[in-house]
Amino acid sequence: MNTQVLPLPSDDAAWASFKTPLTKSELRNFCEDVERLFRINPYLEFSQWRETGPQQYHFSGKNISQDPAFEFATDLRVESSDDEIRVYYTQGLKSSTTFKIESAPEGSQMTIIEDYGHLPEDERQARLHEVDRSLVKWANDLQTYLMHWQRWARFGLWRWYMRRIWQPLKPMSRRIVYILLWITVVEIALILLGAAIFWAEYT
Questions:
Q1: Which DSSP symbol is given to 42?
Q2: Whole-number Å distance between alpha carbons of 80 and 127
Q3: Residue 60: phi, psi to the nearest 5?
Q4: pLDDT tens across 160-174, in order?
Q5: Ramachandran region of residue 55, left (φ > 0), alpha (ψ -120 to 50) or beta?
Q6: Taking 50 as the threshold, does the pLDDT of residue 69 lie above it?
Q7: 3-state SS class at 66
Q8: What is the pTM assigned to this prediction?
Q9: In terms of DSSP H, where are the helices of the chain?
Q10: Across the chain, which distance is largest between two alpha carbons, in Å?
């Protein structure tokens, strides 16, 4: 994670920055799918994502980054340029999330900035249970996803699995599927090992 000083949109904002192996233009194209960016966040459980107009969406679900988890429902408005994607929230504690895209040596850099500065200080303090604490983990998982994307996206089957199977799953379901896949791999390896031993001894 980058720790350099970054100008923030307000006094009540947080940010996380990381390098990616994609070029700036590739990263910019990846960020066009705003729904995918949010679904990669392992602390968000989606109930609904619905397009309501050009670059406008309704988003509801549960945020499990706090204990207890809290439910949310908000309308989103997306503004984009060559260097950033900015998502504005019409409800909730958070006012915006900005995905800043920059060139970097051997790839690009993304910075996620979350701004809470649109509400009065006393109201923000009273609603601390609604603060989204997923930012650092989200940035880590986005970086990992983009590294895998750089390596595997040229394979249509991988893109289909990530889009149609992995992406709609809840975070817990993804972990279960991951464990089941590894159990299957181990079982196949043991079967092949047993077959090899049998072949070596009895043929």
A1: T
A2: 29
A3: -140, 155
A4: 988 988 888 877 656
A5: left
A6: yes
A7: coil
A8: 0.82
A9: 24-30, 34-39, 121-126, 135-152, 156-160, 171-202
A10: 80
The helix (run of H) or strand (run of E) holding residue 126 is: helix 121-126
Q: How would you classify the pairing of strands 84-89 and 107-115?
A: unpaired
Distance CA 39, CA 41 (A): 5
Interior CA angle at 160 toward 159 and 166, to 5°? 90
Rounded to whole angstroms, how far apart are CA atoms 87 and 79?
A: 6
Separation of alpha carbons 130 and 71, rounded Å = 9
Burial 78-91 (b: 16+ CB within 10 A, else e): eebeeebbbbbbee
Cα–Cα distance for residue pair 103/63, rounded to 1 Å: 31
Model confidence at 3: pLDDT above 50: no
> Which residue type is seen at 197?
I
